[in-house]
Design brief:
Layout: H1 2-24, E1 40-44, E2 47-48, E3 52-55, E4 58-60, H2 62-73, E5 81-85, H3 91-97, E6 102-103, H4 111-114, E7 118-133, E8 149-153, H5 158-165, E9 173-177, H6 180-188, E10 194-198, H7 199-206, E11 215-217, E12 224-231, H8 237-250, H9 253-262
Parallel strand pairs: 1-5, 1-6, 8-9, 8-10
Antiparallel strand pairs: 2-3, 3-4, 7-10, 7-11, 7-12
Helix pairs in contact: 2-8
């Protein structure tokens, strides 16, 4: 009899445990939810100063500020955001697998990417440009890069755009380095003459305290790069994020974020793009 009582009590406890698990077992935010979950997972770059960078103090940059604002509008405070590194080659896969709820990581909207994921935005119109030493007045247009040592990161298409695709400077001496930081060091010590990639990325690097006043942007606007926020194909987050981006522009937070993160490099940003207005 006593044994049956113990067994019955144990069964009751087990049943209660199952009920609690069913009701409250999810400890994270749901992709596509209206917020209210414990966390939301956001992909950013960890290694792009001024845009998305992991620092000893936390995460910083324009993309981080945009993502934080959007998350707040979705119902999540800053301490409810779980940041994940979104390397360029991994972004579509991360969204398709559901590893992140959305990605804000200098993510240019292209037809090829739109076949795989959806985009909110754009929230920034960037352009391919060059960074040169502040005291170098010999590079005033893309054609002046002919016979100059032009640096970009291994695997990047930026330098090839100038040299081959658009033939803006077909005789440029292309130098490929493993990182933008390595290119910057080469630019500083005169091993190279110019560094090329998106102007927003260049501004982010040049805005670092240790490089203040040492570099300048060419202002050439060689291509259009429409930065969007990537979401899983078919996600209802797209419309909600678009609304948040519109509010960020209208209340002045967008321009404040640009000025704070990219302004020290004298970055001349384009006006905030209208949602869905993708410049070719």
């Amino acid at each position: 009899m006593k044994l049956r009582k113990v067994t019955a009590a144990s069964a009751t406890v087990f049943a209660l445990a199952l009920t609690a698990t069913a009701c409250g077992g999810d400890n994270g935010g749901d992709s596509g939810s209206d917020g209210g979950g414990k966390t939301i997972t956001v992909g950013i770059k960890f290694d792009q100063p001024g845009l998305g960078q992991k620092t000893p103090q936390g995460y910083a940059g324009f993309d981080v500020d945009v993502a934080t604002y959007v998350a707040k509008k979705l119902g999540y405070d800053a301490d409810q955001i779980e940041w994940k590194e979104a390397k360029s080659g991994d972004r579509e896969t991360m969204l398709q697998r559901g590893d992140v709820d959305f990605i804000a990581a200098t993510y240019s909207i292209t037809p090829e990417r739109q076949d795989k994921v959806d985009f909110a935005g754009p929230y920034l119109l960037a352009h391919q440009d060059v960074l040169v030493r502040a005291d170098d007045n010999s590079i005033k247009s893309p054609k002046d890069l002919n016979n100059k040592k032009l640096c970009s990161v291994s695997g990047s298409t930026s330098a090839q755009n100038i040299k081959d695709k658009y033939k803006l400077a077909p005789d440029a001496d292309l130098q490929t380095y493993p990182t933008y930081s390595a290119c910057l060091s080469g630019l500083q010590n005169k091993a190279i003459d110019a560094l090329t990639t998106d102007d927003s990325i260049l501004a982010g690097y040049a805005a670092q305290a240790q490089f203040k006043g040492k570099f300048k942007l060419g202002g050439f606007k060689m291509t259009n790069e429409n930065y969007g926020i990537g979401v899983k194909k078919g996600s209802d987050l797209k419309d909600k994020i678009n609304k948040a981006l519109e509010e960020m522009v209208s209340d002045g937070s967008w321009q404040k974020a640009v000025d704070k993160n990219l302004g020290p490099a004298n970055y001349k940003n384009e006006p905030a793009p209208k949602i869905g207005d993708i410049k070719s």
